[in-house]
Specification:
With 409 residues, this protein is an all-alpha fold. It has helices spanning 7-35, 41-68, 107-125, 135-158, 163-166, 175-193, 209-228, 236-262, 269-284, 293-316, 325-343, 385-389. It is built from twelve helices and no strands.
Length: 409
């Protein structure tokens, strides 16, 4: 593998890595904290921070090797769903090694960037069943989930030896790997653990919308590195990804709010705008590097409306998805993946197996819609969550006190 090092690309990826970390700490913490019950704010913040710590160690020890090794493609030691053991404990990684996916930046930068993705994905999972699990059992579960769910999906989608990569799956920045995986896992966790006491009778309104807005603003700021950095270069494709992100975000915010007004929802307009911003960010993630501005507009418009409706239907179905991990991330990510199949433009990106989608090409070229089958990939692994997470018997679904969550009252 011949690599051409670029100082500009390295600087951009260092910046993008910092931006993605900023999304989790403190962006996601504030976003979740503003929507939680006031007496659970510290509990949720602790879960996110602790998740960041344990996933970092898991990635360093085994995760990176399982997900993205080997650093060259088509090695006999690689498999369609797992990498090999060549990077266990980051063995062999040096300042002058390069990964096949990022041949102009040192491998340690690529590893750190992907680490930030792994951390925020794991933190998103806990948003669905927030306020119901103890800290230590949750951390045990999330480490197992990282190895059993996240790593094989990341390898299958992003590594050249992965079976979904070879099948032509298009996922520029993590619609499948991050959002659908986290959202579906969160919904399964909600189903297994059960609802909070009084869920059907009590309106769980956010306790501090300004905290939520601060978190959304930080997430939006960090998402520039999340999507733009997924180009792995400081080039025109990164610029296009950033522009598409901004167009989709504002369109989705207005679409979500318009849908809420049309359905006569009692949701505050300020909260609608915030939720719509997140829905747009999620939906454009898998598509941002493969579509043009026209596709970004429709991606945001459709995601804002359907995520709003999906979140309400999920509630009516009796799922206590506390912080809307499924409603925003799984539904939004799925919409983005489908939009990619419609609006992918073969002149927009030459870095992958990209063909024109249905809108610009033909139904045959738009066959990349099949990659939404990942929607179910993580569901098969989550049944043991009941044993790992549940703090009491299978019937005692209730809000945990601070003492039960590991804190003194």
């Amino acid at each position: 593998m011949v690599s051409a090092h670029s100082d500009a690309d390295t600087a951009w990826m260092l910046t993008s890595t910092a931006l993605v970390i900023f999304m989790t700490l403190p962006g996601l913490i504030l976003y979740y904290a503003g929507q939680a019950k006031v007496h659970h704010v510290i509990d949720i913040a602790t879960h996110v921070l602790a998740t960041f710590c344990v996933i970092t160690l898991a990635w360093f020890s085994f995760g990176y090797s399982l997900a993205l090794a080997p650093i060259t493609s088509h090695r006999a030691t690689s498999t369609p769903i797992y990498g090999d053991a060549s990077r266990l404990w980051l063995r062999g990684m040096k300042f002058d090694t390069y990964h096949v996916n990022a041949q102009t930046i040192p491998e340690p930068i690529y590893c750190a960037f992907q680490l930030a993705f792994a951390c925020i994905t794991a933190a998103l999972v806990g948003g669905s069943f927030a306020e119901r699990v103890k800290l230590l059992p949750f951390l045990l579960f999330i480490v197992i989930w990282h190895f059993v769910v996240y790593c094989p999906i990341a390898h299958a989608v992003w590594h050249p030896d992965g079976f979904l990569y070879q099948a032509g799956v298009l996922d520029f920045a993590g619609g499948n790997v991050v959002h659908i995986t986290a959202g579906c896992s969160g919904l399964v966790g909600t189903w297994v653990i059960g609802n909070r006491r009084g869920f059907a009778r009590t309106r769980n309104a956010p306790h501090n919308l300004l905290l939520t807005f601060m978190g959304v603003a930080m997430l939006l700021f960090g998402w520039i590195g999340f999507n733009g950095g997924s180009s792995n270069q400081a080039d025109g494709y990164a610029a296009m990804a950033v522009l598409n992100t901004m167009i989709a975000v504002v369109t989705s915010a207005l679409s979500w709010t318009l849908t809420a007004v049309t359905l006569k929802s009692d949701e505050a307009p300020f909260l609608s705008l915030n939720n719509g911003l997140i829905a747009g960010l999620v939906a454009v993630t898998p598509a941002c590097g493969f579509i043009d501005a026209n596709g970004a507009f429709w991606c945001g418009f459709i995601a804002g409306a359907l995520c709003n409706i999906g979140a309400k239907l999920k509630h009516l179905a009796g799922f206590d998805d506390a912080l809307d991990a499924f409603g925003l991330h799984a539904i939004g990510g799925t919409i983005g993946c489908i939009i990619t199949g419609f609006f992918a433009l073969n002149t927009a990106n030459d870095k992958g197996p990209v063909k024109s989608g249905v809108y610009y090409g033909s139904m045959k070229d738009g066959g990349h819609l099949r990659h939404t089958a990942l929607f179910d990939c993580c569901l098969r692994w989550l049944v043991p969550i009941r044993i790992v997470l549940h703090p009491r018997s299978a019937r005692s679904y209730h809000w945990l006190t601070q003492r039960e969550c590991g804190f003194s009252t």
